[in-house]
Amino acid sequence: MKLSLNTATVRKQWTLAQIIDGCARHQITGISPWRDQVEQMGLAQAKSAIQANGLTVTGLCRGGFFTAPDWHDDNRRALEEAHELGAQCLVLVVGGLPKGSKDLRGARQQVRDAIAALLPEARAAKVPLAIEPLHPMQAAERACINTLEQALDACDELGEGIGVAVDVYHVWWDPKLEQQIARAGRKKRLYAYHICDWLVPTRDLLNDRGMMGDGVIDLPLIRSWVEGAGYTGFQEVEIFSELDWWKRDPDEVLKTCVERAARC
Ligand code: ZN
To answer: For ligand 1, a single-atom ion, which residues have Cβ within 5 Å?
Structure first.
């Protein structure tokens, strides 16, 4: 399987330009940049450096936050950037509860309505939208779509041009994971596959992701489900690690990513 680097993995150490060079040095052939880094480098420069190094843009991180007041403008910009970079999908972190609200059902409806409004623009821009279900611990602050089943139900309602990003960190615990990965494959909605590991204990709910092999996720098993569902795309390494990997030499991080992705 082909390897991609989500640029968050070394964002504390390197600029996007350095990350692009690093991918080339370590024979990582895919990249999934974050929009703030693209903005910092300049969209045109980022695009040309990515192309010059022959990297596939496996996703742009991120659109979404549909429960925020300015969601539409921000997502339109995200679509333009994803189109420009030739991203295989725009990853959607859909947003949690509006400030001060306890209405989770309402937030979920708001998310569905917003995606329905955005989808025709995404189709016109030829940018597939990928809903990334997040672990339920992040339902309030980041995303109120929390399981693959819930994401795929939304996709079924919404129609063509929308699928899912499966991130093992968020879905590894789900008893319906195998079944729902198979469903995503049948419906051709499996757009991205993100890997890392779940550490025990987890010291920070957002920024303590583990390197593949250092935690409790059965990565070979989940990978076999994903491949069994017909996924032939990249494995994208995405590690937010305030306490460990963000403190290390980034070349060591990339080297370890390559080794562990092969082994795990
Ligand atoms: Zn992810």
So the answer is: 167, 194, 238
